[in-house]
Amino acid sequence: MAASTLGVQRALGKSVIPSLVVVLGATGTGKSKLAIEIGKRLKGEIISADSMQVYEGLNIITNKVTAEEQAQCPHHMISFVDPLVKGLYATHFIWFVSLMQHIEDLHRQKKLPVIVGGTNYYIESILWDVLVDTGENRLENAQSGSFISKVELEKLGGLELHKRLNDVDPEMAAMLHPNDVRKIARSLQVYQETGVKHSCLLQKQKEQDGADGLGGPLRFSNPCIFWLHSDLDALDERLDKRVDEMLSLGLVKELKDFHQRFNEKKIQDNSQDYQHGIFQSIGFKEFHEYLTAGRDISQEDHEKLKIKGIEALKQVTRRYARKQNKWVRNRFLKRPGSNVPPVYGLDVTDVSLWEQTVLNPALDILDSLCKGEQPSVEPIKIEGEGLRNKRSHHMCELCDKVIIGDLEWTAHIKSKSHLHHVRKKRKAEETSEHQQGVGSDVPSAAKYQKQAGSTSYTPGSDSDTLEPGTHRNNTRDNEKEISEES
Ligand SMILES: [Zn+2]
């Protein structure tokens, strides 16, 4: 391995190829470990792309690298935002500007940026031009307080927001469900800060050379992307074990301290909000009941609340890991278009084989890329299903419901509640036909089925690109991707 490392370093001396390394993978797959090894060997420095690690505090629950790990290789973008900071500096945009600065600095020093993520749409915004830059006006306006902040906007509620957006940017409004409060607020925010419709900015992005249906072109040529994946059973087991490790590292004490320092007062003031900033971090809100329990409950009941929190944390961690993997499949492996960099899969299922299955293949791939050769390992590619419109607007007049997304619409017209309305309407029509003796020219069921097949495609409406995922109207799983505060 020493020889190949040398080859890589020599190549890096000339120019940095690959332009950057991105280590993707669900929580618990050992991304940091690989990143540190790559960084140490290839004159690299690590940049965290995790929206929760930017905040000070909650080091255990947000899984920050330890001081020991930081000593092995420099890390950036960790613990630099005050947990109580509101809005502006905790935004995706500010994070992004700072991150780009780090990448530039490293490139200037002929060092290799190794990005470890983290938060899906943060990584996406590093690779592709998908982030809507609201320009210099943004800071000026924000500081003078001349616009309503996104958090304040969100408080107005979906219907009111949707109405406002419809007035200024009907194209965008048509792509968003009134319940999608965060996205609607974001679009309104873009409009008030730039005076330009969000839908126009997204459209412009997609009209650039090298753009695809999901956003603008790649920002850096030749990025090298690794995806750490694992058998699901092995991953689940590891995730549970990791929660137990967190507990032995002092998770409960960390949560209690943090709660006392930052959260207690908010709860007293009735201003707690687990939807923004570090407070939405996985593993914090799960302990809300435990942390806020009064002194009047018994020790035993208190202990029960703690166990309940731990179980909830395990569950939510598993769910989050699945979500992260799904995102890699949808936004990388199935991403249509020609501007998708190769993604190299590394199997982390068996930890005891880590060097053979993870580290050595990764170094070999980097070695080949540095020499300008094709790596002997093939990148992963899954055939995409093509662009499905996740943002198309459907109105079911029968149910008086707005449905966003083709897939959701198809599900709706097959749903029990819709079919119930169809039958009800048919019955009502039959009754009135009998009464009036007039035949109906189009049977109502057929009429609504027909509508389902003729959904219109709105160009460029597949995403607002900050984070993937459709708004599902009738599902229980209304859980939000963490930290969408851009
Ligand atoms: Zn319906």
TrEMBL record:
It is an enzyme of class 2 (transferase). It is found in: Cytoplasm; Mitochondrion. The keyword NAD does not apply. Residues 474-486 have a biased composition (Basic and acidic residues). It catalyses: adenosine(37) in tRNA + dimethylallyl diphosphate = N(6)-dimethylallyladenosine(37) in tRNA + diphosphate. Pfam families: IPPT, zf-C2H2_jaz. Its main location: cytoplasm. Belongs to the IPP transferase family. Residues 451-463 have a biased composition (Polar residues). It comes from Bagarius yarrelli. GO terms for biological process: tRNA modification. This is tRNA dimethylallyltransferase. GO terms for molecular function: ATP binding; tRNA dimethylallyltransferase activity; zinc ion binding. Keywords: ATP-binding, Cytoplasm, Metal-binding, Mitochondrion, Nucleotide-binding, Phosphoprotein, Transferase, Transit peptide, tRNA processing, Zinc, Zinc-finger. Its EC number is 2.5.1.75. Catalyzes the transfer of a dimethylallyl group onto the adenine at position 37 of both cytosolic and mitochondrial tRNAs, leading to the formation of N6-(dimethylallyl)adenosine (i6A37). Mediates modification of a limited subset of tRNAs: tRNA(Ser)(AGA), tRNA(Ser)(CGA), tRNA(Ser)(UGA), as well as partial modification of the selenocysteine tRNA(Ser)(UCA). TRIT1 is therefore required for selenoprotein expression. Residues 420-486 are annotated as: Disordered. GO terms for cellular component: mitochondrion. It comes from the Eukaryota. Residues 393-418 form the Zinc finger double-stranded RNA binding domain. PANTHER family: TRNA DIMETHYLALLYLTRANSFERASE.
